[in-house]
Amino acid sequence: VIDLRSDTVTTPTPEMRRAMAAAEVGDDVYGEDPTVRRLEEMAADLLGFEAALFVPSGTMGNQLAVLTHTRPGDEVLVEAEAHIYYYEQGGIARLAGAQPRPVATPDGHLTPSLLDAALRGPDLHFPRPSLLCVENTHNRAGGEVLGVDECQGLAAWAHAHGLRCHLDGARIFNAAIALAVPARALAQPFDSVMFCLSKGLGAPVGSLLVGARDFIAEARRGRKVLGGGMRQAGVLAAAGIVALSTMVNRLEEDHRNAALLADRLAEVPGLVVEPMRLRTNMVMVQTDRPAAEVVLRLREAGVLVNAVGPRRIRLVTHKDVSRDDCLAAVRRFAEALAA
Ligand SMILES: Cc1ncc(COP(=O)(O)O)c(C=O)c1O
Hints:
Blueprint: E1 2-3, H1 14-22, H2 34-47, E2 51-55, H3 58-69, E3 75-79, H4 83-86, H5 91-94, E4 99-103, H6 112-118, E5 129-135, H7 148-160, E6 164-168, H8 172-179, H9 183-187, E7 192-196, E8 207-211, H10 213-225, H11 234-246, H12 251-265, E9 271-273, E10 282-287, H13 291-300, E11 303-304, E12 306-309, E13 312-316, H14 323-338
Parallel strand pairs: 1-11, 3-4, 3-5, 5-6, 6-7
Antiparallel strand pairs: 2-8, 7-8, 9-10, 10-13, 12-13
Bound molecules: pyridoxal-5'-phosphate.
Pyridoxal-5'-phosphate binds at residues 8, 57-59, 62, 83, 135, 139, 168, 170, 196, 207.
């Protein structure tokens, strides 16, 4: 079976498993797990922030950011297809009691002029806008990359209007590799950044939220009330340390495989591959028949993909699919559609 549903399906490397088995641990709710502390320091240093918090998932990291940056009744500006709004069960409203204001874009790229149009003045009737959320790479836009200037421009816009700015950088290292810039350059404009260890980097569990010391101290309180206070979490953090040390540069291979998939799938009748400014590890294809039907046929042929719209399918490359797997997937795609 060739699993192209997501980079979340990646399994830990042998080195990660060894590090997990050998990890020094303590009670992290008491701040006594040395391996978690080491991972948090590493994450903060890597992205150039004062502090970091290890959380079980990207969703918790994002939602904690919203919870910590806002007060109930505030408004959160967010791109309309962003994960934090589209895929997190209305957490902005449900957990933080804030109101999301989705801003539609054709391609995942928010712009200051789109944000100007969405921002309302200080009228008594309106909620207070207090947070802008940005996503890089942008999942539903097909792994679209936001550049350093763009990130700086969006954060500058937020700050000029009195808003904080959070980055959902679940795949920030994919963006950094695609742009050939340090991830820190993409992270620095923001007040907080969440990134995931358990996607392309291959760790089994975990994400980091980074920010200023006070912000992280408050987020740590929020993590506890959400049930995310973990005890001997060093066994998980150990895999995260290996992920950050050894798995970032190889993301380039996933990007090459995605480009290969995109090129070859473009030749398959009945499919249109969505063009990208800069390809990372995702390929979005439009299908001429219902996506659910195509997904089922492919499953029978041993290829797993996800439908992300009525006639839209997403394929994600990662460390557990090779170039040959990608070529085999294209062949099976063509056969399944021809049948
Ligand atoms: C852009 C983005 N943000 C956040 C998340 C949430 O991560 P998790 O599944 O660890 O909650 C995902 C997961 O796919 C994602 O793609």
